[in-house]
Amino acid sequence: MTIREKIERMEQETLSPYATLSIHTKGREREEEPCDIRPVFQRDRDRILHSKAFRRLKNKTQVFLTPKGDHYRTRLSHTLEVSQNARTIAKALRLNEDLVEAIALGHDLGHTPFGHAGEYVLDSLCEDGFRHNEQSVRIVEKLEKNGEGLNLTWEVKDGILNHQTRTTPHTLEGRIVRLSDKIAYINHDIDDAIRAQIMVKEDIPKELCRTLGYTTRERLDTLIHNIITNSIGRDDIRMSKEVEEAMHELRRFMFQHVYKNPIAKGEEDKARKLLKQLYYHYLEHLDLIPEKYTRMLEEGEKKDRIVCDYISGMTDQYAITKFEEYFLPQAWQVDGY
To answer: Judging by beta carbons within 10 Å of its beta carbon (0-12, 13-18, 19+), is residue 113 exposed, middle or buried?
Structure first.
């Protein structure tokens, strides 16, 4: 018996009857020889962790565009906080922690430079629209590894695709990540907003503090415990009505005071114009886009989709560098003296 088979047997013996077992996966698009050590979801987690798209998240905006300071969240640190929250919940509920972690690490791979501002720009320009969750799936299915994709399991891709509010994952593990995403960004964005002096903790409505807690630590503790308490022994992931309503109200508060704050978002108009100019420039100069993207034209992909693929993969600084290269005059250089 291989190590993988022993782990799979351990899952059957110890995980909840509602857990998604590795041996019950719906599989991959391309069949592969099983690993002798890692079950399928652990293998998916590793593939995402080693992908180029994952590494680029470290230089992509979470809320504050290219902030000056080492302690503001980036898209990567957000992803890691989502993963930690989700793993805590999954472990307590005896659900599949490998599946949860794989979904969490992959859920934001498709995010654009400059956060949601970039997403809105590409969505308005691309004929078929642009949504970061769908782009995340496109990355793992097609764009990574020079067009081969990561060949992930159906369950991981389902969780990545459906991590947003308007959709629902088919596994409990995916539903944990969907909630953990909100829990993470609401709380760490409060922390970053206070650090940026956009708000002070006393601005948070007192009735929400009494329900959820007065500090980030207290709120995380309340929300995670509430999910575990209300989901244990059930074929569902849920919160109590009171706490869920308080969380949604806190999210609305953040939209009003931070996500739409003119100080916090003052540079977004520049970012939108920058990406728009890059989009039209690449549309007219496809030769500037790497061949691994343009060869998809032969497979029937539209030009605007390929341009979106390339731009959405950029980090904030790389997009700025390309804009400067194409649209700002460069110093004249002559060899010799």
So the answer is: buried
Residue linked to tokens 């691309």:
126
Cβ(322)–Cβ(140) below 8 Å: no
Mean pLDDT split into 10-residue runs, the chain, 337 residues: 97 98 98 97 98 97 79 94 98 98 98 94 96 98 96 98 93 98 96 92 96 97 98 97 98 91 80 97 97 94 97 97 93 63
Answer for the pair 162, 174: CB distance below 8 angstroms, yes or no: yes
C-alpha to C-alpha distance for 24 and 303, rounded to whole angstroms: 39
Structure tokens at 31: 């069949």
Angstrom distance (rounded) from CA 195 to CA 258: 12
Beta bridge partners of 61: 74
User: What whole-number distance in Å separates Cα of residue 63 and Cα of residue 65?
Assistant: 6
pTM equals 0.95
Residue in the block written with tokens 């959709």: 167
